C-alpha cells in the first residue's frame, strides 16, 4: 500500500509547517484585531460571606 509509506508525506508536512511558521505567520502577526476592547475600570463585587447552615 503506497499511501502508508511516510517518506514523501512526512517531508511535505514538515516543509508546509516550516513555510507556515517562518514565512506566513510573521506576516500575519503584525495585524491587530479590529474589535479592540475598551479600557474599563474593574469593579470588585462586595459579596457577603456565605453562612453554611450545617457547619
Automatic annotation (TrEMBL):
Record flagged with keyword Transmembrane helix: yes
Key words of the record: ATP synthesis, CF(0), Hydrogen ion transport, Ion transport, Membrane, Mitochondrion, Transmembrane, Transmembrane helix, Transport
One biological process term in Gene Ontology: proton motive force-driven ATP synthesis
Keyword hit for Mitochondrion: yes
InterPro entries: ATP8_metazoa (IPR001421), ATPase_protein_8 (IPR050635)
GO molecular function, one term: proton transmembrane transporter activity
Transmembrane segments: 6-24
Mode of membrane association: Single-pass membrane protein
Locations listed in the record: Mitochondrion membrane
Signal peptide coordinates: none
Similarity comment text for this entry: Belongs to the ATPase protein 8 family.
UniProt protein name: ATP synthase complex subunit 8
Gene from which the chain derives: ATP8
Amino acid at each position: 500500500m503506497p499511501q502508508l509509506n511516510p517518506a514523501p508525506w512526512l517531508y511535505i508536512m514538515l516543509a508546509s509547517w516550516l513555510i507556515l511558521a517562518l514565512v506566513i505567520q510573521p506576516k500575519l502577526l503584525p495585524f491587530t484585531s479590529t474589535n479592540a476592547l475598551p479600557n474599563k475600570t474593574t469593579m470588585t463585587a462586595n459579596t457577603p460571606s456565605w453562612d453554611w447552615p450545617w457547619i
